[in-house]
Design brief:
five-stranded mixed beta sheet; Cobalt-precorrin-4 Transmethylase, domain 1; binds S-adenosyl-L-homocysteine; five-stranded parallel beta sheet; 10 strands; Methyltransferase, Cobalt-precorrin-4 Transmethylase, Domain 2
Length: 258
């Protein structure tokens, strides 16, 4: 890396989890940082209502995917954070959910440390926790599941990922980024020995006003996603906890009340 010209003090980078959407789900620390931010670097999953909490005059840099444009490559985001901090600016790097769950926060933190830039991590409510709460699906339950795993459904070599034992009796599997690959996911899990009738829930736009909770058996997952035109962001939750009668009734009651 070329040696940068620094002007006075180095800024600090805050990798801040913005939670699943609703500003109510920010931690107090995250809210304070956003409300004092001079520079906010954010990705597409961050709700506009959260960005609106920044003070007037704050600078915003979006690294989100835009129509016909690709997301800024990760290296360019890392470089941007480092460059701004070395120029003396504190950076609030806002990410959906938690920065360290499928958020590439680890890579950004490494880049900062390598450049001698102080970096702080502010945890956020990950989509799994937000979806579980909003849909009243307990991720663990003494009668249904004592193991919970988070996996990425869209990653390099999905077929080679070893998910054996992550789903099934007594386990809950939460799949991030799995909408597009739902058919391969269902196939993979059944090849691993899951029965076609294992209950599944798809939670779209969890913890937002537009949330939808769809349920069905594992074998019907691809069809459910297509028929209901499920769009990202959505989580797929696999396991008995998604079919607990009390939770299903609570969800129906909520829907009816709307
Ligand atoms: N760091 C984030 C995850 C980023 S990966 C976190 O901790 O939540 C992006 C994926 O997260 C999406 O494809 C989707 O699977 C999930 N996701 C994020 N926000 C969501 C929401 N409000 N509802 C459902 N899924 C969500």
């Amino acid at each position: 890396m070329t040696s940068p010209i620094t002007t006075g003090q180095i800024g600090t980078v805050y990798l801040v989890g913005a939670g699943p959407g609703d500003p109510d789900m920010l931690t107090l620390r995250a809210a304070r940082l956003v409300m004092q931010a001079k520079l906010v670097v954010h990705d597409g999953l961050v709700d506009p209502a959260i960005l609106a909490m920044a003070p007037a005059g704050a600078r915003f840099v979006s690294v989100a995917k835009q129509r016909n444009h690709h997301t800024l490559p990760q290296e360019a985001i890392n470089a941007l954070l480092v460059r701004e901090a070395l120029a003396g600016n504190d950076v609030v790097r806002l990410k959906g959910g938690d920065p360290f769950i499928f958020g590439r926060g680890g890579e950004e933190a490494e880049s900062c440390r390598a450049a001698g830039v102080p970096v702080h991590i502010v945890p956020g409510i990950s989509a799994a926790n937000g979806a579980a709460a909003a849909a009243q699906i307990p991720l663990t339950h003494r009668d249904s599941a004592s193991i919970v795993s988070f996996v990425a459904g869209q990653c390099k070599g999905l077929a080679e990922q070893d998910w054996a034992g992550l789903a099934g009796k007594g386990r809950t599997l939460v799949i991030y980024m799995g909408v597009k690959t739902a058919p391969q996911i269902a196939e993979k899990l059944m090849a691993d020995g899951l029965t076609p009738d294992v209950p599944v829930a798809v939670v779209e736009n969890a913890a937002r006003a537009s949330m939808r909770v769809l349920r069905g058996p594992l074998a019907g997952l691809p069809d459910l996603v297509t028929r209901e035109r499920v769009k990202s962001p959505a989580l797929i939750i696999i396991g008995e906890v998604t079919a607990r009668e009390d939770a299903t009734l609570a969800a129906l009651a909520l829907e009816a009340a709307e």
